[in-house]
Amino acid sequence: MASRTQESETSPELDLVRITLPTLPSVPLLSAPSVFNVGARRLYDYSPTAILKMGTDEGEGVMTALARSILGPVVPEVLGVVTVPHLHPRARHGLLLARQPGTPLVTIWPSLQPMQRADVKNKLCDLVLRMRMRQFSYYGRPGGLPYTTETECGTAQHTFCTTRTEWNESRIRALQTVAPSIDIDEPRRLALEQMQKETICDDRPVLTHGDLSSRNILVHPDTLEVTGFLDWEMANVMPAYFEYVLARLSGGHQAEWRKELLDVLKNVLRVEAQNRAAQQTSVEDGGSAGDEEYGRALKAWNRLVDVERSAQEYSDRCYWTFEDNSQ
């Protein structure tokens, strides 16, 4: 197992090159079934080796660089933070990213056999486990920047936190802000606040992607090796349970892929639970203790899904947030 290393906010890989362009280059939009050019967000076919992503910001660049420092070349290299001053403020900033090899998983998943699907899911599990190995001392983004969540109504920024208590307070503030708009009455809100405070689980800060859609994963079409983890715009350093929460709540995943992704994340939890149990019990008792630890942890994760469903402004009408078909 790889050793865990402490994250440094002064790491050279987080010092990004800045590029100012007088005009937007005359290059075509990137076109593929897995690419969505929505609103100010645009992906351009910049060169044979690079993609220009406009309508994003330096925060995504920092998180992409941080992820690359942990996972290596499976994450795109950030070639520069781009500014085109004359464009609308929401569209003038972007990133120049190195192209990743591979095929979007969403395009080949339907054709894969069960054993091939299991192989891909095991590889994704290994990558997520690696992603969660590095130690952090905060919840947020490097440099004291706030963390970002995507709600049913858009995106929201939340205060940088250095302790679990501060994190709990941050999530309770989010809940209190949106409760009236989604018809959460006071007794229910107070019960959710109590759940946030009292639920005990693995709360170590870990790198969290936030949108593990099959569109954001590239694989080699022959070997099925994972060759790309893309789109780190919703990435943050968050408690270990939060990747699972976001997978449960996201309305952007196809129903079939959500089930597969939840299987992956539960396998991540199972491995981590077994490792914790092995450190605390004898070899003979390690298996059963690991199963018990896994069961307790999954129950806690699901309680926190109930908190975040409301804190992220999903009403009870958002049926997919209640779906959890695998154990």
Describe this structure in words.
The chain is built from eight helices and twelve strands. It is α+β, with helices and mostly antiparallel strands and 327 residues long. The chain has two domains: 12-98, Phosphorylase Kinase, domain 1 (2-Layer Sandwich); 103-144 and 171-322, Aminoglycoside 3'-phosphotransferase, Chain: A, domain 2 (Alpha-Beta Complex). The strands form four sheets. A five-stranded mixed sheet has the order 1-4-5-3-2, with helices on one face. Strands 6-10-11 form a three-stranded antiparallel sheet. A two-stranded antiparallel sheet has the order 7-8. β2 (42-47) and β3 form a beta hairpin. α4 runs parallel beside α8 and α6 (242-249) packs across α8. The radius of gyration is 20 Å and the shape is globular.
Low-confidence stretches: 1-8
Query: Could you please say which CATH topology of the largest domain applies here?
Result: Aminoglycoside 3'-phosphotransferase, Chain: A, domain 2
Total DSSP E strands: 12
Q: Give the class from helix and strand content and strand pairing.
A: alpha+beta
Q: Which CATH architecture of the largest domain would you pick?
A: Alpha-Beta Complex
Organism: Rhodofomes roseus
Domain Aminoglycoside phosphotransferase: 62-263
Protein name: Aminoglycoside phosphotransferase domain-containing protein
InterPro entries: AGP_Transferase, Aminoglycoside_PTrfase, Kinase-like_dom_sf
